[in-house]
Amino acid sequence: MNTTTTTAGRDWRQGAECADVDPEIFYPLDLDPHGPAVTTAREICADCPVRAACLLDVMAGEDPARRWGMTAGLTPDERADLYAGRQLSSALPGAVAA
Ligand code: SF4
């Protein structure tokens, strides 16, 4: 989960798989990408029908210097990698931004 808001609003959250789940699951102390805590959050996100909207929302609104918790099935480091990849892709001549 995240706490950002986009111009599209938050209606998509009504279908979130995590709506009725303990929020602590998404803020594990152990962020080992293959560890049990992250895996538990990933499994919930994997079944989420609004995962794409969730990912777009967090990538649009999350402060790159303050990433924390699991969102859209990704760790903070994974979202940082995704963000960096988008920047690199859009900077290359002829590349299409993700
Ligand atoms: S993708 Fe994960 S964090 Fe995002 S709304 Fe769905 S269950 Fe929640």
TrEMBL record:
Protein name as annotated: 4Fe-4S Wbl-type domain-containing protein
Cofactor(s) demanded: [4Fe-4S] cluster
Pfam families: Whib
Location(s), subcellular: Cytoplasm
Family designation: Belongs to the WhiB family.
Tree of life domain: Bacteria
PROSITE patterns: 4FE4S_WBL (PS51674)
Domain 4Fe-4S Wbl-type: residue ranges: 17-81
Key words of the record: 4Fe-4S, Disulfide bond, DNA-binding, Iron, Iron-sulfur, Metal-binding, Transcription, Transcription regulation
A GO term for molecular function: protein-disulfide reductase [NAD(P)H] activity
GO cellular component terms attached to this protein's record: cytoplasm
Family matches, as InterPro entries: 4FE4S_WBL (IPR034768), Whib (IPR003482)
Record GO biological process: cell redox homeostasis; negative regulation of DNA-templated transcription
